[in-house]
Specification:
- The protein has 236 residues and is mostly helical.
- It has one domain (44-72, 92-231).
- It contains 10 helices and no strands.
- One of its GO terms (cellular component) is plasma membrane.
- Residues 87-198 form the VTT domain.
- It is found in: Cell membrane.
- Keywords: Cell membrane, Membrane, Transmembrane, Transmembrane helix.
């Protein structure tokens, strides 16, 4: 005898009749946002970014630019936080920019003062590395040609910030001549990095793809800056 009762539902079907085991394109994007946001929860992201930017003047391989871009990508996702679609704890764009710029200037100042006092010891340390010696010579000549504006450009070049700050201190350049350009360089780099992360997320969605494209754009800017810094003037 047939038993009449409530219809059976598939385990993969919700009470609204929708399959819960199937992810839509939008839910995949949101998962990506959650993954990024989980790594950039405030306030710790500001501490991590500040330390990374401050220290990469001494250790240029630190991924400070990548961290800033990733945090900015999460900040772009924050526009939907009020609806509950994305994590509510995401970095603030202005605070992130000021954090990165301030840490950049402080790192430059520390390197500048250490080089000022280091003198002969710093010269001996640089002399042990052909790469550092070559970079110091190239950038020193470029600075002599381009003046303070080149400090801003060198901020985007790999290890350019380190060479500029250490060379300025070792040659006892005036702090009044160096620090304003250092501040402008740090602010320009921070604004550019944050803008890459934010607009990349706006165009491609707040996912790892957007972060990767933005990081590639940052590296491209660094390669371009290196080329301009090393380029000799016509007729030289």
């Amino acid at each position: 005898m047939a038993v009449i009762g409530r219809p059976c539902r598939s385990p993969a079907t919700s009470r609204h009749g929708l399959a819960t085991g199937v992810k839509t394109g939008s839910s995949t994007v949101l998962d990506g946002i959650e993954d990024v946001g989980s790594l950039t929860a405030v306030p710790w992201i500001y501490v991590v970014v500040a330390l990374s930017v401050l220290l990469d003047v001494f250790v240029p391989v630190l991924p400070s630019g990548v961290l800033v871009i990733t945090a900015a990508t999460a900040a772009a996702a924050g526009s939907g936080a009020a609806t509950g679609q994305v994590p509510g704890e995401v970095p603030d764009l202005l605070a992130l920019t000021l954090c990165a710029a301030t840490a950049s200037v402080l790192g430059d100042l520390v390197a500048y003062r250490l080089a000022w006092r280091g003198g002969a010891r710093l010269d001996r340390a640089i002399a042990r590395s052909r790469h550092l010696t070559s970079a110091q010579e190239r950038l020193g000549a470029a600075l002599a040609r381009g003046g303070g504006a080149l400090v801003v450009l060198a901020r985007f070049a790999p290890a350019g910030r380190s060479v500029v700050s250490l060379s300025a201190g070792a040659t006892h350049r005036s702090a009044r001549d160096f620090l304003p350009w250092s501040a402008l360089a740090g602010l320009a780099w921070a604004v550019y990095s944050v803008a890459l992360g934010y607009f990349g997320a706006q165009w491609l969605g707040a996912t790892w793809l957007a972060t990767g494209v933005s990081v590639a754009a940052l590296f491209a800017a660094g390669a371009g800056a290196s080329y301009v810094v090393r380029r000799r003037p016509a007729g030289a």
